[in-house]
Amino acid sequence: MYTNALDLNNLGTAVGSTTRTNKGDSNTDPQAAQDRFLTLLVAQINSQDPLNPMDNAQMTTQMAQINTVSGIQQLNVTLKSMADQFGSLQSLQATSLIGRQALVEGNRLSFEGDRGHGALALGSPASQVVVDVIGTNGALIGSVDLGALPAGQHPFTWESAGVDPARVASFSIRATQAGQPVTATPLTRTPVTSVGFSSGAMNLQLQDGRSLRYDQVRAFM
After folding, report:
1. Per-domain boundaries in the chain
2. What is the C-alpha separation between 189 and 104, in angstroms, rounded?
3. What is the mean pLDDT of residues 18-34?
4. Strands 110-112, 115-122: parallel, antiparallel or unpaired by DSSP?
5. Can you give the pLDDT at residue 128?
6. Is the dihedral of CA 121, 123, 125, 128 positive or negative?
7. Considering only CA atoms, which of 123, 120, 124, 125 is closest in space to residue 104?
8. Whole-prediction pTM value?
9. What percent of the chain has pLDDT over 70?
10. Average pLDDT over every residue of 18-23
11. What is the CATH code of the structural domain delimited by 105-189?
């Protein structure tokens, strides 16, 4: 009885339990696939018609096919290993963020003693930037004149001069260029209390109660 060329599409099940190895899943292990191929190739050569043997082109094609299959399987193993390493690095990075200050959108000051810290982001250059500090009663209790600033993020500090931080509600920004208003986004500093993952994305739990994605944080301090 003579055999036809190998069918690599059924290589994973062609030899059943007679070619199982101890190197892992026989359907994904590249070495197991090569062993199955060689077993079938030897069986095919032994049973081929001596008057009509397999030509070199057929054998070369089959060898190229098994090398391709083996290469794809090895690539899958490598990619899985890289994904596992990336996951470990993400977890390590997440742990290091706990306790650090996250700079996010918000209009609250972060106090260290008599100093209130905040930041702002300008959409374009401004010739005059003033930060107004608003009390819990809605009244203005202080200002910080930052002068002219280029576009981008800028930190600032307000000297409270003994004002109780509990009396401070928020801050607002007045930014102009040649008398025209400039878009300004208030930014606040708040500690990261915990970190988690959802659908592969890193989420940060902040001390002010908010939960934000990692890409929503402007900077860490």
Report:
1. 8-97, 105-189
2. 7
3. 55
4. antiparallel
5. 97
6. negative
7. 120
8. 0.58
9. 70
10. 44
11. 2.60.40.4070
